[in-house]
Amino acid sequence: MKRELKISAIKNGTVIDHITPGKAFEVARILGLEDFSAPVSIAVNVSSGKSGTKDIIKIENRELSKNEVDRISLVAPNATVNIVKNYEVIDKKKVEIPSEIVGILPCSNANCVTHFEPVKTKFLLESITPLRIRCFYCERVLTEDDIKREIARED
Predict the structure, then answer these.
(1) Helix 66-75 and helix 144-154, axial crossing angle in degrees, nearest 10
(2) In the chain, count of helices (H) and strands (E)?
(3) Residues pairing with 52 in the sheet
(4) How many CB atoms lie within 10 A of CB 38?
(5) Is the model's pTM score more than 0.90?
(6) How does pLDDT run across 92-107, given as a tens digit for each residue?
(7) Rounded to whole angstroms, what are the CA distances from 17 to 7, 46, 48, 143?
């Protein structure tokens, strides 16, 4: 007898699918879901025909901002964001790491001008695999681990 755990469909909201296995809790932290009052479902290591396994997050009654989607792209670059209305997916987009990452995370260089002047941080994408971004102002390079630390520090 085959048993499966099913996550119920949501009427309205957002489904973040194809999250890199093990990254769902980082995505949830980025979105501040621990303080969100509507139902949230998180599934980790779910079978996937494309990639073997994946994580999924379903958030009822919430659509993500562009800034939130850009932040997700830095930790789960293969994710898709699906907007659901009346139980139907009305929009589906693959996240993309923007070529310019503005105001999303701080520069890890304590001497960077962004810590002393009222300017938004700005990073330029150098490489997707491995993920590397460069500060526009001080030229500090951040790797995926650096980005993960800075995003966690911001939350």
Answers:
(1) 140
(2) 3, 9
(3) 48
(4) 12
(5) no
(6) 999 999 999 998 889 9
(7) 13, 10, 10, 24
Task: Give the strand pairing for 100-102 and 88-94.
Answer: unpaired
**CA angle at 130 for the pair 127 and 134, rounded to the nearest 5°:** 45
One-letter amino acid identity for 118? Answer: P
- C-alpha 25/C-alpha 101 separation (Å) is 22
Nearest residue to 42 via CA among 67, 25, 18:
25
Q: Per-residue pLDDT averaged across 15-21, rounded? A: 94
- Quote the DSSP letter at residue 40: E
Kindly report, residue by residue over 37-91, the tens digit of the pLDDT: 889 999 998 888 777 899 999 999 999 999 899 999 998 999 999 999 999 999 9
Q: What is the pLDDT of residue 154?
A: 65
**Max Cα separation, the chain?**
63
Q: Phi then psi for 85, rounded to 5 degrees?
A: -130, 130
User: Which tokens in the block code for residue 130?
Assistant: 């491995």
Rounded distance, CA 26 to CA 44, Å?
12
